[in-house]
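So, does this match?
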Amino acid sequence: MVHSCRQSSPPSLPLSFDWVVAQTPVPYPDAVAEMESRVADILAGGKGNQIWLLEHPPLYTAGSSARAEDLINPRFPVFETGRGGQYTYHGPGQRIAYVMMDLRVRGNDLRRYICDLEEWIIRALNDFGVKGERREGRIGIWVAQRSHEEKIAAIGVRVRKGIAFHGVSINVCPDLSHYAGIVPCGIREYGVTSLEKLGVAAAMTDVDAALMRHWNGVFG
């Protein structure tokens, strides 16, 4: 079942963002420390919103709803994190977009924010001829195949005092066998896919360009 989101209304104040693209994989603890620092700066009024595009070395993260039985084979480092969701994999070939945004100027509407992140991914994937879809009760973006469907993008958000951080991940060309160490997002019935698996030869810079191109159309 496809679920629908409310139409986004413009934020009450204009939002500006700093875009940063990491050129080499960023260790997960370093990324968390950097996000924490940025959130503190936004709260203090010293810096504005930021979108950080990066990759991680192979690792698993456990969200606030992670279940021990879903960690099947911890072949890579496992990090507990305060974001929502369960276990997920991050690694080379996966574009991660960490979004540090002041939700207070958007009415602290977390539901709307998640829907907007989904829409952002859907529009970016459409540039590559891939139809990404929402599913009722399953956060993330899914691709329907003839006899099954698979997840191509994940979303995990944390909010502190009205500032959102963490964000989304899109499978561009990761080693999908690395997902075998976990039950991704606690969902056993469905697999994962990537642009590469779908026959799309997209460079990471192509994906970045699509994300940048569609940001303002979704978030104003």
About this structure: Residues 1-14 have pLDDT under 50 and may be disordered. Residues 66 and 195 are 26 Å apart (CA to CA).
